[in-house]
Amino acid sequence: MVEETEGKTPEELVELAKYHIDTKNNSKAIQILQLASESTPGNRKIWYLMGEAYRFLGQGKNALEAYLKAIEISEDADTYNKMGHVNQYQFKDYTKALEFYDRAIKLKPSSKDPWLNMGVVYNSLKDFDNAVMCYEECLKIDPNYAIAYNNLGWLYEKLKKDKKKAILNYEKAIEVDPKYVLARKNLLRYKRSKKETAEDWNCEGTAYFELKKYKDALKCFQKATDMNPKERLYWHNAADALRRKGKNKDAINYYQKANAISPDFLTYLYMGLSYANSKQYDKAREYYEKAGEIRPGHHFVLNNIGDLCFRQKNYQEAFDYFKQTTEANPGYYLGWYNMGRGHKKNGAHYEAMDCWMRALSLNSKHYYTKQALANLIIGHPKLKEKKKSLEEKYGFTFTAKVKF
Fold first, then answer.
1. 3-state secondary structure string, the chain?
2. CATH fold of 1-74, please?
3. pTM over 0.90
Protein backbone atom coordinates (compact mmCIF):
# COMPACT_ATOMS: atom_id res chain seq x y z
CA MET A 1 0.00 0.00 0.00
CA VAL A 2 2.73 2.49 0.98
CA GLU A 3 4.76 1.65 -2.14
CA GLU A 4 1.68 2.01 -4.35
CA THR A 5 0.72 5.47 -3.01
CA GLU A 6 4.11 6.95 -2.17
CA GLY A 7 4.84 10.26 -3.88
CA LYS A 8 1.47 10.47 -5.63
CA THR A 9 -0.53 13.68 -5.81
CA PRO A 10 -4.15 13.72 -4.56
CA GLU A 11 -5.34 13.66 -8.18
CA GLU A 12 -3.19 10.60 -8.90
CA LEU A 13 -4.51 8.93 -5.74
CA VAL A 14 -8.08 9.50 -6.95
CA GLU A 15 -7.28 7.91 -10.32
CA LEU A 16 -5.59 4.97 -8.57
CA ALA A 17 -8.64 4.51 -6.34
CA LYS A 18 -10.92 4.62 -9.40
CA TYR A 19 -8.82 1.86 -10.99
CA HIS A 20 -9.26 -0.30 -7.87
CA ILE A 21 -13.04 0.31 -7.91
CA ASP A 22 -13.17 -0.64 -11.60
CA THR A 23 -11.27 -3.87 -10.79
CA LYS A 24 -13.55 -4.58 -7.78
CA ASN A 25 -10.86 -4.01 -5.15
CA ASN A 26 -13.09 -1.64 -3.19
CA SER A 27 -11.46 -2.01 0.24
CA LYS A 28 -8.11 -0.85 -1.14
CA ALA A 29 -9.86 2.00 -2.97
CA ILE A 30 -11.33 3.22 0.33
CA GLN A 31 -7.91 3.22 2.01
CA ILE A 32 -6.46 5.27 -0.85
CA LEU A 33 -9.38 7.71 -0.84
CA GLN A 34 -9.10 8.21 2.92
CA LEU A 35 -5.44 9.08 2.41
CA ALA A 36 -6.33 11.54 -0.35
CA SER A 37 -9.03 13.17 1.81
CA GLU A 38 -6.47 14.07 4.46
CA SER A 39 -4.84 16.63 2.16
CA THR A 40 -7.84 17.64 0.01
CA PRO A 41 -11.06 17.13 2.03
CA GLY A 42 -12.90 19.57 -0.26
CA ASN A 43 -12.57 17.38 -3.34
CA ARG A 44 -16.11 16.08 -3.96
CA LYS A 45 -14.86 13.33 -6.30
CA ILE A 46 -13.07 11.69 -3.37
CA TRP A 47 -16.28 11.41 -1.34
CA TYR A 48 -18.37 10.33 -4.34
CA LEU A 49 -15.93 7.51 -5.17
CA MET A 50 -15.80 6.53 -1.51
CA GLY A 51 -19.59 6.27 -1.57
CA GLU A 52 -19.34 4.06 -4.65
CA ALA A 53 -16.78 1.77 -3.00
CA TYR A 54 -18.86 1.41 0.17
CA ARG A 55 -22.01 0.81 -1.94
CA PHE A 56 -20.33 -2.00 -3.87
CA LEU A 57 -19.24 -3.54 -0.55
CA GLY A 58 -22.85 -3.44 0.69
CA GLN A 59 -22.04 -0.94 3.44
CA GLY A 60 -25.05 1.29 2.92
CA LYS A 61 -24.67 3.51 5.97
CA ASN A 62 -21.06 4.39 5.15
CA ALA A 63 -21.98 4.91 1.49
CA LEU A 64 -24.71 7.41 2.38
CA GLU A 65 -22.38 9.31 4.70
CA ALA A 66 -19.75 9.60 1.95
CA TYR A 67 -22.32 10.63 -0.67
CA LEU A 68 -23.69 13.26 1.74
CA LYS A 69 -20.21 14.81 2.13
CA ALA A 70 -20.00 14.98 -1.68
CA ILE A 71 -23.40 16.69 -1.82
CA GLU A 72 -22.37 19.21 0.87
CA ILE A 73 -19.49 20.28 -1.38
CA SER A 74 -21.58 20.40 -4.55
CA GLU A 75 -25.03 19.06 -5.43
CA ASP A 76 -25.06 16.49 -8.20
CA ALA A 77 -27.90 14.52 -9.79
CA ASP A 78 -25.90 11.28 -10.07
CA THR A 79 -25.00 11.37 -6.37
CA TYR A 80 -28.66 11.84 -5.40
CA ASN A 81 -29.53 8.95 -7.73
CA LYS A 82 -26.97 6.70 -6.01
CA MET A 83 -28.31 7.70 -2.57
CA GLY A 84 -31.75 6.67 -3.77
CA HIS A 85 -30.30 3.38 -5.00
CA VAL A 86 -28.79 2.61 -1.56
CA ASN A 87 -32.07 3.36 0.23
CA GLN A 88 -34.03 1.32 -2.30
CA TYR A 89 -31.90 -1.82 -2.47
CA GLN A 90 -29.96 -1.95 0.80
CA PHE A 91 -32.51 -0.51 3.24
CA LYS A 92 -35.80 -1.09 1.35
CA ASP A 93 -36.73 2.46 2.36
CA TYR A 94 -38.84 3.31 -0.68
CA THR A 95 -40.00 6.70 0.67
CA LYS A 96 -36.42 7.92 1.07
CA ALA A 97 -35.45 6.40 -2.27
CA LEU A 98 -38.22 8.29 -4.08
CA GLU A 99 -37.20 11.49 -2.31
CA PHE A 100 -33.61 11.24 -3.57
CA TYR A 101 -34.66 10.23 -7.11
CA ASP A 102 -36.96 13.26 -7.16
CA ARG A 103 -34.07 15.52 -6.14
CA ALA A 104 -31.94 14.05 -8.91
CA ILE A 105 -34.65 14.73 -11.51
CA LYS A 106 -35.20 18.33 -10.33
CA LEU A 107 -31.46 18.98 -10.53
CA LYS A 108 -31.10 17.33 -13.96
CA PRO A 109 -34.45 16.80 -15.76
CA SER A 110 -32.71 15.14 -18.73
CA SER A 111 -31.34 12.28 -16.57
CA LYS A 112 -33.08 8.98 -17.43
CA ASP A 113 -31.74 6.76 -14.64
CA PRO A 114 -33.66 8.37 -11.74
CA TRP A 115 -36.89 7.98 -13.74
CA LEU A 116 -36.09 4.32 -14.34
CA ASN A 117 -35.28 3.72 -10.68
CA MET A 118 -38.47 5.46 -9.56
CA GLY A 119 -40.36 3.16 -11.91
CA VAL A 120 -38.75 0.13 -10.25
CA VAL A 121 -39.79 1.44 -6.81
CA TYR A 122 -43.37 1.81 -7.99
CA ASN A 123 -43.10 -1.71 -9.47
CA SER A 124 -42.24 -2.98 -6.00
CA LEU A 125 -45.18 -1.06 -4.56
CA LYS A 126 -47.45 -2.48 -7.31
CA ASP A 127 -48.40 1.08 -8.26
CA PHE A 128 -49.04 0.50 -11.96
CA ASP A 129 -49.96 4.05 -13.02
CA ASN A 130 -46.95 5.77 -11.44
CA ALA A 131 -44.58 3.06 -12.67
CA VAL A 132 -45.83 3.45 -16.27
CA MET A 133 -45.52 7.24 -15.98
CA CYS A 134 -41.88 6.92 -14.85
CA TYR A 135 -40.93 4.55 -17.66
CA GLU A 136 -42.67 6.73 -20.24
CA GLU A 137 -40.77 9.79 -18.97
CA CYS A 138 -37.59 7.73 -19.22
CA LEU A 139 -38.38 6.86 -22.85
CA LYS A 140 -39.06 10.51 -23.70
CA ILE A 141 -35.44 11.16 -22.75
CA ASP A 142 -34.08 8.04 -24.47
CA PRO A 143 -36.48 6.33 -26.91
CA ASN A 144 -33.99 3.45 -27.28
CA TYR A 145 -33.70 2.55 -23.59
CA ALA A 146 -34.25 -1.21 -23.66
CA ILE A 147 -34.56 -1.64 -19.87
CA ALA A 148 -37.53 0.73 -19.75
CA TYR A 149 -39.34 -1.23 -22.48
CA ASN A 150 -38.61 -4.52 -20.71
CA ASN A 151 -39.91 -3.16 -17.41
CA LEU A 152 -43.06 -1.88 -19.12
CA GLY A 153 -43.55 -5.37 -20.52
CA TRP A 154 -43.30 -6.80 -17.01
CA LEU A 155 -45.89 -4.30 -15.73
CA TYR A 156 -48.39 -5.14 -18.44
CA GLU A 157 -47.78 -8.85 -17.94
CA LYS A 158 -47.92 -9.03 -14.14
CA LEU A 159 -50.13 -6.15 -13.05
CA LYS A 160 -52.49 -5.61 -16.00
CA LYS A 161 -52.53 -9.09 -17.54
CA ASP A 162 -52.38 -7.42 -20.96
CA LYS A 163 -50.54 -10.00 -23.07
CA LYS A 164 -50.50 -7.96 -26.26
CA LYS A 165 -48.87 -4.89 -24.68
CA ALA A 166 -46.47 -7.07 -22.68
CA ILE A 167 -45.22 -8.79 -25.84
CA LEU A 168 -45.01 -5.49 -27.75
CA ASN A 169 -42.79 -3.97 -25.08
CA TYR A 170 -40.56 -7.04 -24.76
CA GLU A 171 -40.17 -7.07 -28.55
CA LYS A 172 -39.40 -3.34 -28.56
CA ALA A 173 -36.67 -3.92 -25.94
CA ILE A 174 -35.09 -6.56 -28.19
CA GLU A 175 -35.47 -4.36 -31.27
CA VAL A 176 -33.47 -1.50 -29.71
CA ASP A 177 -30.97 -3.87 -28.07
CA PRO A 178 -30.79 -7.29 -29.80
CA LYS A 179 -28.33 -8.55 -27.15
CA TYR A 180 -30.59 -7.77 -24.19
CA VAL A 181 -30.88 -11.25 -22.70
CA LEU A 182 -33.44 -10.50 -19.97
CA ALA A 183 -36.00 -9.23 -22.48
CA ARG A 184 -35.43 -12.35 -24.59
CA LYS A 185 -35.96 -14.53 -21.53
CA ASN A 186 -39.20 -12.73 -20.71
CA LEU A 187 -40.49 -12.94 -24.27
CA LEU A 188 -39.46 -16.60 -24.52
CA ARG A 189 -41.25 -17.47 -21.30
CA TYR A 190 -44.37 -15.53 -22.25
CA LYS A 191 -44.72 -16.83 -25.81
CA ARG A 192 -43.72 -20.41 -25.08
CA SER A 193 -47.29 -21.66 -24.72
CA LYS A 194 -48.48 -20.48 -28.13
CA LYS A 195 -46.49 -20.75 -31.37
CA GLU A 196 -48.65 -20.63 -34.46
CA THR A 197 -46.22 -19.61 -37.20
CA ALA A 198 -42.71 -20.37 -38.41
CA GLU A 199 -41.68 -16.89 -37.24
CA ASP A 200 -42.86 -17.76 -33.70
CA TRP A 201 -40.47 -20.72 -33.72
CA ASN A 202 -37.70 -18.58 -35.21
CA CYS A 203 -38.26 -15.95 -32.50
CA GLU A 204 -37.97 -18.57 -29.76
CA GLY A 205 -34.90 -20.07 -31.44
CA THR A 206 -33.27 -16.64 -31.56
CA ALA A 207 -33.94 -16.20 -27.84
CA TYR A 208 -32.30 -19.56 -27.05
CA PHE A 209 -29.40 -18.71 -29.37
CA GLU A 210 -28.74 -15.44 -27.55
CA LEU A 211 -28.79 -17.40 -24.28
CA LYS A 212 -26.21 -19.80 -25.81
CA LYS A 213 -28.62 -22.74 -25.54
CA TYR A 214 -27.79 -23.95 -29.03
CA LYS A 215 -29.45 -27.36 -28.77
CA ASP A 216 -32.80 -25.78 -27.91
CA ALA A 217 -32.27 -23.07 -30.53
CA LEU A 218 -31.65 -25.70 -33.21
CA LYS A 219 -34.92 -27.51 -32.44
CA CYS A 220 -36.84 -24.26 -32.82
CA PHE A 221 -35.11 -23.27 -36.06
CA GLN A 222 -35.77 -26.74 -37.49
CA LYS A 223 -39.46 -26.34 -36.63
CA ALA A 224 -39.39 -23.05 -38.51
CA THR A 225 -37.81 -24.66 -41.61
CA ASP A 226 -40.43 -27.44 -41.47
CA MET A 227 -43.25 -24.89 -41.48
CA ASN A 228 -41.70 -22.56 -44.06
CA PRO A 229 -38.85 -24.19 -46.03
CA LYS A 230 -38.70 -21.26 -48.48
CA GLU A 231 -37.39 -18.77 -45.89
CA ARG A 232 -33.59 -18.65 -46.17
CA LEU A 233 -33.14 -17.02 -42.75
CA TYR A 234 -34.46 -20.10 -40.94
CA TRP A 235 -31.96 -22.38 -42.70
CA HIS A 236 -29.16 -19.94 -41.98
CA ASN A 237 -30.10 -19.69 -38.27
CA ALA A 238 -30.25 -23.49 -37.95
CA ALA A 239 -26.80 -23.68 -39.56
CA ASP A 240 -25.45 -21.14 -37.06
CA ALA A 241 -26.75 -23.26 -34.17
CA LEU A 242 -25.16 -26.41 -35.63
CA ARG A 243 -21.84 -24.59 -36.12
CA ARG A 244 -21.88 -23.40 -32.50
CA LYS A 245 -22.49 -27.01 -31.44
CA GLY A 246 -19.38 -28.05 -33.38
CA LYS A 247 -21.37 -29.91 -36.06
CA ASN A 248 -19.66 -28.22 -38.98
CA LYS A 249 -20.57 -30.79 -41.66
CA ASP A 250 -24.29 -30.51 -40.86
CA ALA A 251 -23.96 -26.72 -40.64
CA ILE A 252 -22.52 -26.60 -44.17
CA ASN A 253 -25.52 -28.55 -45.49
CA TYR A 254 -27.92 -26.04 -43.94
CA TYR A 255 -25.92 -23.04 -45.19
CA GLN A 256 -26.07 -24.55 -48.69
CA LYS A 257 -29.86 -24.81 -48.44
CA ALA A 258 -30.02 -21.16 -47.40
CA ASN A 259 -27.86 -20.08 -50.32
CA ALA A 260 -29.87 -22.23 -52.74
CA ILE A 261 -32.79 -19.93 -51.95
CA SER A 262 -30.75 -16.72 -52.10
CA PRO A 263 -26.95 -16.20 -51.91
CA ASP A 264 -25.87 -14.13 -48.94
CA PHE A 265 -22.61 -12.61 -47.68
CA LEU A 266 -22.80 -13.93 -44.10
CA THR A 267 -23.89 -17.40 -45.21
CA TYR A 268 -20.85 -17.73 -47.48
CA LEU A 269 -18.64 -16.34 -44.73
CA TYR A 270 -19.89 -18.83 -42.15
CA MET A 271 -19.68 -21.69 -44.63
CA GLY A 272 -16.02 -20.79 -44.98
CA LEU A 273 -15.65 -20.77 -41.21
CA SER A 274 -17.30 -24.20 -40.94
CA TYR A 275 -14.90 -25.59 -43.55
CA ALA A 276 -11.97 -23.97 -41.74
CA ASN A 277 -13.11 -25.54 -38.46
CA SER A 278 -13.13 -28.88 -40.32
CA LYS A 279 -9.57 -28.15 -41.55
CA GLN A 280 -10.75 -28.13 -45.18
CA TYR A 281 -8.76 -25.01 -45.93
CA ASP A 282 -9.11 -24.92 -49.72
CA LYS A 283 -12.90 -25.14 -49.43
CA ALA A 284 -12.87 -22.53 -46.69
CA ARG A 285 -10.97 -20.09 -48.89
CA GLU A 286 -13.33 -20.77 -51.80
CA TYR A 287 -16.31 -19.65 -49.74
CA TYR A 288 -14.53 -16.71 -48.13
CA GLU A 289 -13.76 -15.51 -51.65
CA LYS A 290 -17.43 -15.97 -52.64
CA ALA A 291 -18.33 -13.73 -49.68
CA GLY A 292 -15.70 -11.27 -50.93
CA GLU A 293 -17.36 -11.14 -54.33
CA ILE A 294 -20.53 -9.89 -52.67
CA ARG A 295 -18.70 -7.37 -50.45
CA PRO A 296 -15.25 -6.67 -51.95
CA GLY A 297 -12.57 -5.72 -49.43
CA HIS A 298 -14.69 -6.51 -46.39
CA HIS A 299 -12.58 -6.77 -43.23
CA PHE A 300 -14.25 -10.04 -42.13
CA VAL A 301 -13.20 -11.71 -45.38
CA LEU A 302 -9.65 -10.33 -45.33
CA ASN A 303 -9.17 -11.34 -41.69
CA ASN A 304 -10.52 -14.86 -42.20
CA ILE A 305 -8.38 -15.53 -45.27
CA GLY A 306 -5.40 -14.25 -43.32
CA ASP A 307 -6.25 -16.65 -40.49
CA LEU A 308 -6.37 -19.53 -43.01
CA CYS A 309 -2.93 -18.59 -44.29
CA PHE A 310 -1.64 -18.41 -40.73
CA ARG A 311 -3.00 -21.90 -39.97
CA GLN A 312 -1.24 -23.18 -43.09
CA LYS A 313 2.01 -21.49 -41.95
CA ASN A 314 1.99 -19.07 -44.88
CA TYR A 315 2.95 -16.30 -42.48
CA GLN A 316 3.92 -13.55 -44.93
CA GLU A 317 0.68 -13.94 -46.91
CA ALA A 318 -1.24 -14.02 -43.63
CA PHE A 319 0.46 -10.80 -42.49
CA ASP A 320 -0.43 -9.08 -45.76
CA TYR A 321 -4.11 -9.97 -45.27
CA PHE A 322 -4.08 -8.84 -41.63
CA LYS A 323 -2.55 -5.52 -42.71
CA GLN A 324 -5.31 -5.12 -45.31
CA THR A 325 -7.86 -5.91 -42.59
CA THR A 326 -6.69 -3.04 -40.37
CA GLU A 327 -6.62 -0.70 -43.36
CA ALA A 328 -10.16 -1.70 -44.36
CA ASN A 329 -11.46 -1.22 -40.81
CA PRO A 330 -9.08 0.36 -38.27
CA GLY A 331 -11.73 -0.17 -35.56
CA TYR A 332 -11.79 -3.97 -35.93
CA TYR A 333 -9.90 -5.30 -32.91
CA LEU A 334 -9.37 -8.82 -34.34
CA GLY A 335 -7.42 -7.31 -37.22
CA TRP A 336 -4.96 -5.74 -34.78
CA TYR A 337 -4.82 -8.92 -32.69
CA ASN A 338 -3.93 -10.96 -35.76
CA MET A 339 -1.46 -8.42 -37.09
CA GLY A 340 0.26 -8.66 -33.71
CA ARG A 341 0.50 -12.42 -34.19
CA GLY A 342 2.12 -11.79 -37.57
CA HIS A 343 4.67 -9.36 -36.10
CA LYS A 344 5.52 -11.82 -33.33
CA LYS A 345 6.19 -14.57 -35.89
CA ASN A 346 8.60 -12.17 -37.60
CA GLY A 347 10.34 -11.47 -34.28
CA ALA A 348 9.10 -7.86 -34.21
CA HIS A 349 8.09 -7.92 -30.55
CA TYR A 350 7.60 -4.20 -29.97
CA GLU A 351 5.44 -3.93 -33.09
CA ALA A 352 3.42 -6.94 -31.87
CA MET A 353 2.90 -5.27 -28.50
CA ASP A 354 1.76 -2.04 -30.18
CA CYS A 355 -0.82 -3.99 -32.22
CA TRP A 356 -2.14 -5.86 -29.17
CA MET A 357 -2.37 -2.66 -27.16
CA ARG A 358 -4.34 -1.15 -30.05
CA ALA A 359 -6.62 -4.22 -30.01
CA LEU A 360 -7.18 -3.84 -26.26
CA SER A 361 -8.00 -0.16 -26.66
CA LEU A 362 -10.84 -1.31 -28.94
CA ASN A 363 -11.90 -4.32 -26.87
CA SER A 364 -10.33 -4.48 -23.41
CA LYS A 365 -12.03 -7.83 -22.65
CA HIS A 366 -10.63 -9.90 -25.53
CA TYR A 367 -9.12 -12.93 -23.80
CA TYR A 368 -6.70 -14.01 -26.52
CA THR A 369 -5.21 -10.54 -26.94
CA LYS A 370 -4.65 -10.25 -23.20
CA GLN A 371 -3.01 -13.66 -23.04
CA ALA A 372 -0.86 -13.03 -26.13
CA LEU A 373 0.37 -9.77 -24.64
CA ALA A 374 0.98 -11.48 -21.30
CA ASN A 375 3.02 -14.24 -22.92
CA LEU A 376 5.11 -11.72 -24.80
CA ILE A 377 5.85 -9.61 -21.73
CA ILE A 378 6.53 -12.52 -19.38
CA GLY A 379 8.81 -14.23 -21.90
CA HIS A 380 10.72 -11.09 -22.90
CA PRO A 381 13.15 -9.74 -20.27
CA LYS A 382 13.27 -6.23 -21.76
CA LEU A 383 9.49 -5.90 -21.65
CA LYS A 384 9.01 -7.01 -18.04
CA GLU A 385 9.60 -3.45 -16.86
CA LYS A 386 6.31 -2.46 -18.57
CA LYS A 387 4.36 -5.23 -16.84
CA LYS A 388 3.08 -3.25 -13.84
CA SER A 389 2.03 -0.15 -15.78
CA LEU A 390 0.20 -2.26 -18.37
CA GLU A 391 -1.59 -4.25 -15.66
CA GLU A 392 -2.81 -0.99 -14.14
CA LYS A 393 -3.86 0.38 -17.51
CA TYR A 394 -5.82 -2.65 -18.70
CA GLY A 395 -7.00 -4.05 -15.36
CA PHE A 396 -5.70 -7.62 -15.60
CA THR A 397 -2.68 -9.51 -14.33
CA PHE A 398 -0.11 -11.07 -16.65
CA THR A 399 0.30 -14.55 -15.21
CA ALA A 400 -0.88 -17.62 -17.18
CA LYS A 401 1.20 -18.58 -20.20
CA VAL A 402 -0.91 -19.87 -23.07
CA LYS A 403 0.39 -21.04 -26.42
CA PHE A 404 -1.23 -19.77 -29.61
1. CHHHHCCCCHHHHHHHHHHHHHCCCHHHHHHHHHHHHHHCCCCHHHHHHHHHHHHHCCCHHHHHHHHHHHHHHCCCHHHHHHHHHHHHHCCCCHHHHHHHHHHHHHHCCCCHHHHHHHHHHHHHCCCHHHHHHHHHHHHHHCCCCHHHHHHHHHHHHHCCCCHHHHHHHHHHHHHHCCCCHHHHHHHHHHHCCCCCCHHHHHHHHHHHHHCCCHHHHHHHHHHHHHHCCCCHHHHHHHHHHHHHCCCHHHHHHHHHHHHHHCCCHHHHHHHHHHHHHCCCHHHHHHHHHHHHHHCCCCHHHHHHHHHHHHHCCCHHHHHHHHHHHHHHCCCCHHHHHHHHHHHHHCCCHHHHHHHHHHHHHHCCCCHHHHHHHHHHHHCCHHHHHHHHHHHHHHCCCCCCCCCC
2. 1.25.40
3. no
